[in-house]
Structure formats: structure tokens, C-alpha cells
Design goal:
Helices cover 44% and strands 26% of the residues. It is an alpha/beta fold. Helix 8 (200-209) crosses helix 9 (220-231), helix 8 crosses helix 12 and helix 9 packs antiparallel against helix 12 (252-265).
Amino acid sequence: MRLAVVDIGSNAIRCQITKILRHSNQVNFKKVEYIRYPIRFGEDVFKLNEIGKVKEAKFYKLMQALKLLFDVYDVDDYMICATSAMRESRNGREIANNVEKNIGLHIDIIDGETEAEYINKVVYSSLDEKNYLHIDVGGGSTEINFYVNKVNLISNSFQVGSVRRLNNADTPEMWAEMQNWLTHNIPTDVGPITAIGTGGNIDKIYSLSKTKSKTREISRFAIERTINFVKKYSFEERINILMLNPDRADVIVPASEIYLSAMKWGHATKMVVPDVALKDGMIQILFQKHFPDSEDVTKNIITSY
């Protein structure tokens, strides 16, 4: 079976086609195709409250291309989710309807809580009985969950994101809301708290830090040190010397400010970076749709990339 998922984010659109291999009590998710296109809807939406005509036209072409890709890969089922930028855009729903009518692909515009739930599908399987603060920073929003003994005690979504911050579309009130929520809801008497960081920017920060850890653990100090290193380079130097994609080179610093602030307010001094994202949770959702008994084998899933 082949499953396809598309994550329409505020910064980029990610498509992954995965082949599901089942044998006995083991499930293997094997990635057979991955495409990332930096459409940056948030650049329009957080300034103009709508997706502009240029990006809209490119989006239709991309969705048509993905539809063809699904066909040539013989995809059995797909799931397309749009997050912060499209849900805040006044023409987001209209664009999604046009895609379904003219191209034949259905787009779910999901809220922040659902986004966090999907990401947690893959994060949860790696948890133990310790205390974890899961921080997922996207282009337009940040989702935060707090776990104790593998129980999600509290969660929230905030309108603070890397593209939003880059375009000065965040406000002191948005930041104060996140700070107040963390400082008032994350207890200090439960013992050490480890952050879990998901999102493309923290993956790149971890890579740039050259941290050597089998568990992909990095300290808050190492994150700060890495970002101070990145700040020394101009935008062009980040692309040509640090080898960052253009749409990563400008948002990596704003994103780091969100991760570091959430860690500080949530009393976390270290972070695990598991290299999973919304698309991985979406694949889990699709898998469980076709294999209702999957809850019994989820812990045995092997992701082969």
C-alpha cells in the first residue's frame, strides 16, 4: 500500500509518499518520494490577510503536479492538511474549494489543536515516564504540549511563528499570552523537564550545532551558541557558506527565539530533536484508517528513510 500526505504550511508545502510494508507484528514505513516547495503563504497572509494572486496561481499548478504524482505512484489514499496561513486567510477556504472542484484533491484546513494532535501521534511513541515539554514551531503558529508519565496534561496553540515573526506580524500580546500560559501552567515541582523540539528549523539548528548524541539531545546553551554563530553571517553567506535554503536562511533565527523562549518559560534546559513533523503524524492517521488494529503494532513501526 502507498499513502501520500501533504502538509500546507505557512512557510513551505511538503509532500511525502510512503510505502507501507507489513510482516508479522512489524510495520515498516518506507519513504519513496519527498517534495518540499517554499511557497510561503504566510508572507501574504500575515500582511494582507489573504493569499495573493501570484502564490494562488502557483499553488494550483503545484496541486495539479501532486495529483499527477499520486497517479504515477499508484497512491492508494492521501491526506492533505493546511495549517496557520490558510486557516487565517480570508480566501483560504475558497482556494481549497477550487482545488477540490477543479483538480479533485480535498484539503482539510485544520485548527491548532488538531495540528498538535497529529504531531503527537509520532512524538508520543518515543516518550518515557519523565517530564516533557513538546514545542512545535511552524511558520505561523507554535503548538505546545506538556507530558508527565506519558500523559498529556495540557496543550495549547499560539499565533507565534517563524514567518509571522520575520514579517513583524507577531505582537507583544501574542508573546505575552504564550509566556503567561507557560509560566502559570508548567509546574516547577515535578522534577527536571526535557523539551522535545519538532519543526524544520530546530532540525537544522541541531545539525549546525554538530552535537553528537545518539538520542539527538541538545542543551539550551548549545542552541544559543549555534544561533549566535549563524547570526554572524549575512543572508547570502548563510546560503553560500552554511548551505541553508533561502527560505531557511531568513527564518532560522526568528524560529530559534521561539524555541528558546518556550524552553526558558517552561523550565527546560535541554531538548531532544526527534526529526519528526506533522507529515509523519498524518501518515500514522492514514495508516490507522486502513488498519484499525494498528494501535497494537504502532510501537513496532520502523521508519525507513
